[in-house]
Amino acid sequence: MEKHSKIYIAGHRGMVGSAVHRKLIAEGFTNIITRTSQEIDLRNQKEVFDFFNSEKPEYVFLAAAKVGGILANNTFRADFIYENLMIESNIIHHSYLNQVKKLMFFGSSCIYPRMAPQPIKEDYLLTGVLEDTNEPYAIAKIAGIKLCDAYRAQYKCNFISVMPTNMYGLNDNYHPQNAHVLPALIRRIHEAKINHTSEVMVWGSGSPRREFLYADDLADACFMLMQNYNEPGLINIGSGVDLSIKDLAQLVKRVVGFDGELKFDTTKPDGTPRKLMDNTKLKNLGWEPKMKLDEGIEKSYQDFLSKHPNVN
Length: 312
Ligand code: GFB
Description:
The chain has 312 residues and is of the alpha/beta class. It has helices at residues 15-26, 45-55, 70-75, 77-97, 135-155, 181-194, 215-228, 245-256, 280-283, 293-307, and strands spanning 7-10, 32-33, 59-62, 102-106, 159-164, 166-168, 199-203, 209-214, 234-237, 242-244, 261-265. It has a domain at 7-171 and 212-240 and 276-292: NAD(P)-binding Rossmann-like Domain (Rossmann fold). The strands form three sheets. Strands 2-1-3-4-5-9 form a six-stranded parallel sheet, with helices on both faces. The longest helix has 21 residues, at 77-97.
């Protein structure tokens, strides 16, 4: 990518897309195009056809997706598979039709088998059954990887697939029911603090383990990969460190400054017991994450407070 290359970020307002946007601006790129979901419905093939036909971007970051935590995935199963299949099919196909030089597709760590050996290597894809709570989303994301590889095989498209671990950071979704675990705990523990309640419910048993990566670290890795990585298949992007949900809740409690008790609601699903990804492929390209989890949670909390001043 050159500084004046025409770069389209699909999903630029989301946590991942906005981090990529910040990174490109910081690196001095001047020809970035974006569209809000009011301006273009990426599920609509005609709207995507018209957009690519008129704009003809040279590079595409496909960060637009319908995303959510375990409960949202398990509740809106049809929406998660349909919307993500439509978005990725439209953008990948019209990137091919308009000779996009390179496209980056964003998958997720939930594409791997529920009980994959840990840490999870890219080769473990499709070697076992998926976690049921997010199977529709995982199937859609696996289809995205296969779309990129099929367009590379048949049409020589340079479409790459990256697999981020559980993400958090600025512009996260803090919806009480639909959010991922980290933002959900930030909001719930903050509300408990300001309402002086004595305890906070954490979903599940607290024993599952999750790996977290700060969105700006992901954007840094994606910038490097967009410049230097041109392979079929997929590449994991993680922090290489995981912790239990219980320890995560304790960490959020400390950052937020809540001195009440944590309780565990085992009527809520635990999901995958663990999904720590093997980062060797990425490390061999010389990349390492920078943000420590406690510091990242502090930054996320400040971002939450700045964007949700009236939450109580
Ligand atoms: O981020 P999360 O919702 O999804 O994390 P996954 C779920 C884990 O955190 C489960 C526990 O073990 C939950 O029981 N948890 C505790 C909570 N309290 C809460 C809470 O208040 N909200 C939420 N959401 N969880 C997601 C996939 O799986 O991973 C997505 O569903 C995506 O599709 C994402 O792939 C990366 O980590 O289980």
